[in-house]
Amino acid sequence: MIVTLLAVFALLRDVMAGNKERTFLMVKPDGVQRGIVGEIIKRFEQKGFKLVAMKFMQADEELLKKHYADLSSKPFFPGLVKYMQLGPVVPMVWEGLGIVKTGRQMLGATNPADSAPGTIRGDLCVQVGRNIIHGSDSVESANKEINLWFKPEELVQWSPMGADWIYEDN
């Protein structure tokens, strides 16, 4: 009986820890200029994910070069960094069960032409160079990006009233 209870508690702990997975999303300058930040936030809230940090800011070259460091050898890298400086961006941290994978699915393919209808890029953009949003591609990338864009004290710890209606074992 004690072994069974311990197994149940371990399972609940793992499920609850999964609810705390975080991802980094950033609305790019084209998304901000088009006034669709609210639409993007709305989709993640309606899915049941929790916003834990958000900024409205002008990103500088140094920060953008660090953020996109994995693309630094690509021929489009200088243009990407320059483009990202053209206007404000909205970096955000979202939390929830499987949010990295689900978030990427919600965004759609990097190239909007390859994105399914119903995805953010499939519904709201046309060209890869104006694909309105960045999303972490793994938990490791999410942690790195969150730490790059946010200080620990900027991440808000809170529990939404509706969490019990989203997660079975909250």
TrEMBL record:
UniProt record similarity statement: Belongs to the NDK family.
Signal sequence, renumbered to the chain: 1-17
Keyword Ligase: no
Binding positions (ATP): K28, F76, R104, T110, R121, N131
Molecular function in Gene Ontology: ATP binding; nucleoside diphosphate kinase activity
Organism: Leptotrombidium deliense
Pfam families from the UniProt entry: NDK
Descriptive protein name: Nucleoside diphosphate kinase
Record-linked InterPro entries: NDK-like_dom (IPR034907), NDK-like_dom_sf (IPR036850), Nucleoside_diP_kinase (IPR001564), Nucleoside_diP_kinase_AS (IPR023005)
SUPFAM superfamilies named among the record's database cross-references: Nucleoside diphosphate kinase, NDK
